[in-house]
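Chain X:
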Amino acid sequence: MNCPKCNTDLVKKYYKGMIEVDSCPNCRGMWLDFNELDKLEDVIFDDDIHKGSLVHFQSNTNFPCPHCGSGLEEFQYRLYDLKLDYCAENSHGFWLDAGEDERVITYMRQRAEDIQRKADAEATWKQTLKEMHLFLKKRK
């Protein structure tokens, strides 16, 4: 397979020792097979129901899918300020330019923290309401 951005031969490597990806030694981008983006996200945040929709605002690109050659589409990743490319026609996978892998991890870390902060706030509010209810009950 060739890099969709610079046409260099992709080489297999283990990303952080856990996911086998096809990497471009020239531009440092990487091809993730369709389920591998989820594996990358799961390193930080594996609560799929709370991740949010993956693909928003797609548009065509001039870059070919390394597997089938059909045009990749660009999309806004989970409504974050990040655009990724993917094989929309055949669902082969995702192309991440250099550094976009770390941005995905950063966004998932932030999402996990936001979900935990929300759960903590809800638990605190529930306890406050319970205490207020008991206080008002005692006053009667």
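Chain Y:
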Amino acid sequence: MSTQHASAELTLGTTGIAKRPVDAAESRTANRIWWDADADDYHAEHGDFLGAADFVWCPEGVREQDARLLGDVAGKRVLEVGCGSAPCARWLASQGARAVAFDISAGMLRHAAAANRETGIDVPLVQASADQLPFADGSFDAACSAFGAVPFVADSGTVMREVSRVLRPGAPWVFAVTHPIRWIFPDDPGPGGLTVTQSYFDRTPYVEVDERGRATYVEHHRTMGDYVRQLAAAGLELVDLLEPEWPAGHDREWGQWSPLRGKLFPGTAIFLTRKR
């Protein structure tokens, strides 16, 4: 457990950590209640970095304004997967996109609705889980996710199939996740986070539990190969894979991200894919 999330852990009664299987329903419930409980603290800590209408892909600071991983979005219907407070969707809307954003957490969407009002950029917001998308087949021209949903769903292959289903042929699906190599290290931005402590091939979820053993937070690990196979099975073509380097002069810590670790091994993987 992390002192950075002490408020959420106290609210949910988190008492320990388990490594055990977690099915789709338990993952949905755990991460809905977790992000509801942590939403205020999360935005108090990271809101300035993320902005209200900015598209930051990762803690390394890659911005869509510079990277243009989605290409020209003007006039296109774009889905943000696991949007949090939806700053990415609002930035897309500012570029002429018809953006739609969804998240499993009502707490996160509360912040998103507030930011809609503050910015005057009224992005449609939907509460949903990424493995059960409430959208019609072929209804979007692009989809994106900056650290949203994918690691928190029990079967990310289902997420890939659902995103592929709602995309039109040729549409991009670009998503950023914690680099799978980070799974082998402790979740520590300091020297303690430089020593391997677990197997890269151990896909047992990380689970925080309350005194009854109920999951209060769940995160799932997949290898690079797992992601590639899931994408192929969903009819998605892998176009590129970015592993952003830690930028010079960037001294901000974010959870396990830090200059110390960033100069030694990647913290983020950004998959650029396209529906066949």
